[in-house]
Design goal:
By secondary structure, the chain is α/β, with parallel strands linked by helices. The chain has a domain of 160 residues: Rossmann fold (3-Layer(aba) Sandwich). The chain has 9 helices and 9 strands. The strands form 2 sheets. It has a 6-stranded mixed sheet with strand order 5-6-7-3-8-9, sandwiched between helices. It has a 3-stranded antiparallel sheet with strand order 2-1-4, with helices on one face. A hairpin with a 2-residue loop joins strand 1 and strand 2. The longest helix is centred in the C-terminal third of the chain and has 16 residues. The N and C termini lie far apart (46 Å). Bound molecules: adenosine-5'-triphosphate. Adenosine-5'-triphosphate (ATP) binds next to helix 1. It comes from Roseinatronobacter thiooxidans. It is found in: Cell membrane. It is a peripheral membrane protein.
């Protein structure tokens, strides 16, 4: 399949009710690895991820992909902070994106079982997805996203409801997905997680992309006073 990357953002801006939520932001998403969005609450991380994924109306600027619409949609996935569950079992929920892509029922079920085991839901295959705990829903959402081996995966705070063990497992799954060729872009509040996972960091403040830097550079020599203050744990007003 043709690569959907690079994704080029040219001065994109998002405004709602006269308020600027994001932008203007320019960025090119390409290559391999894990990019991590950091920034204080309300700095625009979720809005930025949603804009790239194509589910946020753009008020200005341009978004360009290297491929056409159907491929672009099929080759990417998004794990939401509060994933929406279907009225299906865990097994069928994970199998669903494959069924949509025309994979046979038997193959989809077998891939779903493999992914359920990988995210630690192997014992929950027959349970309704709706009754899972918050952390289990996040794991299911990750399995449902990765079962199609997407070229590009967006995640919004994927470990927000998870304990240390589950976070560790998810981080390894993301690193494996990355090695298998999935480009990952995610937000996190957890500076430790960014240090563990990031290849590069995008630092947002007040809807503006203040820094884009390789991880080591951002953590040792942030280029802006806001970035430095954020890393020190100061409140950014
Ligand atoms: N649909 C909307 N209409 C109006 N304002 C919105 C809308 N969605 C988000 N906002 C506002 O846009 C700003 C950016 O929100 P966003 O959720 O993108 O930030 P964030 O960095 O992801 O925050 P957090 O870390 O708290 O999840 C916030 O001030 C938020 O209140």
């Amino acid at each position: 399949m043709q690569s959907i990357l690079p994704l080029t953002l040219e001065d994109i801006e998002i405004r709602r009710n006269g308020k600027r939520l994001l932008g203007p932001v320019s960025w090119v998403l390409d290559g391999a690895g894990i990019s991590i969005l950091m920034g204080p609450n309300g700095s625009g991380k979720t809005t930025f991820l949603r804009a790239m994924h194509g589910i946020e109306r753009i008020s200005g600027g341009r978004i360009r992909w290297a491929a056409q619409a159907p491929e672009v949609q099929q080759a990417q996935a998004f794990v939401f902070q509060a994933p929406i569950m279907m009225r299906r079992t865990v097994r069928d929920s994970i199998a669903y994106p494959l069924r949509l892509r025309g994979v046979s029922r038997a193959q989809a079920r077998s891939a779903a079982e493999e992914w359920a085991a990988r995210v630690g839901l192997g014992a929950a295959l027959a349970r309704p997805a709706m009754v899972l705990s918050g952390g289990e829903k996040q794991k299911l959402a990750l399995a449902r996203a990765l079962v199609t081996a997407p070229q590009l995966l967006f995640l919004d705070e994927p470990c927000a409801n998870l304990d240390g063990r589950a976070t560790h497992d998810i981080e390894h799954i993301l690193q494996d997905a990355c090695k298998a060729g999935t480009r990952v872009v995610m937000s996190t509040h957890d500076i430790g997680q960014a240090r563990r996972l990031a290849d590069d960091v995008l630092f947002l403040h007040d809807g503006r992309l203040l820094e884009t830097a390789p991880k080591d550079q951002f953590f040792t020599r942030p280029a802006t006073p806001e970035g430095a203050a954020f890393l020190k744990g100061d409140l950014l007003l």
